[in-house]
Amino acid sequence: MCRILLLIVLGLAAAAAAQTEARPFEIAAWVDHYDFAAAQQDGKFLFDTETSQGIAAVLDHVQETGATTILWRNCAGSTMRYQSVEESHHNDSQLDKRRVLDDRAIFGWVRYGDPAGDPALRAAVSRRLADLGVPAEPWQIVTTVGATHALDIVARTLLQPGDAVLVDEPGWAVEYERLSRMGMRLLPVPRGADGPDLATMQALLLAHRPRLYVTVSVLHNPTGNTLTPAAAHQVLRLAEQHDLTIVEDDTYAFLAPPQATRLATLDGLKRTVLVSGFSKILTPQWRVGFVAAPPALAERFIDSKLISTLTTPAPLEQAIAWCLDQGLLRRHAERIQQRLDAARAHAVRHALAAGARFVTPPQGLFGWVDVGTDTERLALAMLDEGWLLAPGTLFQVGRRPSTCMRINFAATQDGRFWAALPALR
């Protein structure tokens, strides 16, 4: 945790440095999307930093008048004063406006950010995806408030109430609930050790003509398995035949080997949309994610983002970009993977000793285990003893009894948990 906090602080400090190093004085901003560089209010000049002309007018005004107070208004129409750090700039040497105009980051934190996301992060993510074999230019990437927000943007852009959607089963309960509340018809595809049940997928495609397939190819939640190359090719073949768009949730990318099979790598972002984020490798409260998509869809996702969150926090995104570019996140992920490998081995020994059976080979962060009894009932009994379980019914489209449950390898290191499990089973 200390390393994570240090990583975040370093990233924020570096991002903040870009705001201060080239700033000769403090300037407040007019953040409307109109050019009112020459407007006045109560005899005071107002300026627009959304345009280069507006920024130039700010610099000219300060240089010519020695102004130390500039008014600014936000989109709600309120007005406030901002006192310059310097007492006066009157008679200062000529300001180098070209330098300031070329460094828009100086003004970035006092106005709305780029609707597509911070350019530095989108460029860094593009390079990161290239390392994974996914071809995505920065303009194909839209940043989001975490991967869950990215999934929501994709669904709201591409679906209408009543549309059919293929989903993995077992799969992520939050995705099931979100799509259901949006009025979608969920079509579960059984997920095995190699990937989805292809015969079931083909039958559902023929019968229901679904618009999307939402899946986790790498370190699937909750089974932990990764799609095989053979299965991936068959999934893409079916998608081509049935005009299906695939939404690939790559949330666990930093916990997986880079050569893991991704549909977006094989497809080149033609029929695939890749979603990911940074909370799993940093901290859940660091809500920075992204979606990488074909160019036409990327533009539509920006429109959907504008009507949901308008923009995303540039300081957080710039910190992540700096950590990516400096290699800090890669080295941090390598350390986390080593610790997770050790935790997994420890948890697997305990699970097998407690009589649990792994349905799929244990990999990644989660294990999918069969304990031979109704895990919803078991979860209530364990909760009474102070232990929290994720019963199998949570990971099914229809809530029905299951003898399986998901374990988090990092959170099941305590031997008392595994001692309580067989006693209550």
List its salient traits.
425 residues; seven-stranded mixed β-sheet; four-stranded antiparallel β-sheet; globular
Structural overview:
- By secondary structure, the protein is of the alpha/beta class.
- It contains 14 helices and 15 strands.
- It has helices at about 1-20, 50-65, 95-100, 120-130, 145-160, 175-180, 200-210, 230-240, 265, 295-305, 315-325, 330-355, 375-385, 415-425, and strands spanning about 40, 45, 70-75, 80-85, 140-145, 165-170, 185-190, 210-215, 245-250, 270-275, 290, 355-360, 365-370, 390, 405-410.
- The protein has a 7-stranded mixed beta sheet with strand order 5-11-10-9-8-6-7, with helices on both faces.
How are the strands of the biggest sheet laid out side by side?
5-11-10-9-8-6-7
Number of helices: 14
Distance between the termini: 34 Å
Order of helices and strands: HEEHEEHHEHEHEHEHEHEEHHHEEHEEH
Q: What is the number of strand segments?
A: 15
Gyration radius, rounded: 26 Å
Provide the structure class. Answer: alpha/beta
Largest sheet: 7 strands, mixed
General form:
globular
- Sequence stretches where pLDDT stays below 50 over 5 or more residues: 19-38, 68-107
Secondary structure: helix percent: 40-55%
Mean pLDDT level:
82
User: Strand fraction band?
Assistant: 5-15%
